[in-house]
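Collaborator request, handled under Task 6.
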Amino acid sequence: MEIIQSIPIQPTVKVLLSYATSKTKVDQEYDLYIHAPARKLYGYYMDQELVGCLGIELVDAHQCVIKHIAVSPAHRGKGIGGEMVQFINHHHSFSSIYAETDRDAVIFYKNIGFHITSLGEKYPGVERFACLLTGPPLQRRLSPST
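Structure tokens returned to the collaborator:
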């Protein structure tokens, strides 16, 4: 994995980010990754093809919030998401990683060891979930096979 910092946003990055946020917000979110020091966007490559991305916001040296995580449809179910979470944790040595998600992604986070709490219906008809992974070292609990 490597940091994505290209200006302007590359088409493949734009497509991946659109899986994790609304298409109308992709440019705005990408701009935050380029200009906000606490934001980092990582790309996951297979055979020099960008197939996944993971964006985080650093809370401090030991905590982060996953802002975006996406894998191209052709590569889903191969453990790439779990590998990306494992990479950022290993790279930064976090003691906690937090994400907020919808029902569709809860199983992914639960399968890689996150504790899941319902936040209720934050938006009309949409239940949201808090996902938290704590305790050092996180990398032992994250399996590349997820």
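The cover message to the collaborator said: "The CA atoms of residues 41 and 55 lie 4 Å apart. The beta strands are 2-3, 39-46, 49-60, 63-71, 96-102, 115-123, 126-134. Please let us know whether this matches your experimental observations."
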